[in-house]
Amino acid sequence: MRLGKKLKLMREKKGMTLRELSKLSKVSISHISDIENGRNDPSITVLGRICAALDTSVGVFMMGVDLYEC
């Protein structure tokens, strides 16, 4: 599963809107949307901020971890 799809599933599983994730991660809504829709890849710094906001690790997005187990 691609990173953007994992990100969207994790965000939705946590009941978070794009706006909420943007505010917590300090990443623009449009950038998060672009990542989720496969139009852009995040830098490690951006991915780290998103993961912190989602209270998860970067490894969840980099490895073949089943999101339903997180």
Properties at a glance:
single chain, 70 residues, mainly alpha, 434 Repressor (Amino-terminal Domain), 5 helices
What features would you describe in this structure?
With 70 residues, this protein is an all-alpha fold. It has a single domain (3-57), classed as Orthogonal Bundle (434 Repressor (Amino-terminal Domain)). The chain is 61% helix and 0% strand. The protein has 5 helices and no strands. It has helices spanning 3-13, 18-25, 29-36, 44-54, 58-62. Helix 2 crosses helix 4. The radius of gyration is 11 Å and the shape is globular. The mean pLDDT is 90.
SSE arrangement:
Layout (H helix, E strand, L loop, with lengths): L2 H11 L4 H8 L3 H8 L7 H11 L3 H5 L8
Mean pLDDT, to the nearest integer, reads 90
Largest sheet: none
- Per CATH, the architecture is Orthogonal Bundle
Order of helices and strands: HHHHH
Unreliable stretches (pLDDT < 50, length at least 5) are none
Class inferred from helices and paired strands: mainly alpha
CATH class: Mainly Alpha
Strand content: under 5%
Silhouette:
globular
Q: Level of helix content?
A: 55-70%
> What name does the CATH topology carry?
434 Repressor (Amino-terminal Domain)
What's the short version?
It contains five helices and no strands. It has 70 residues and is mainly alpha-helical.
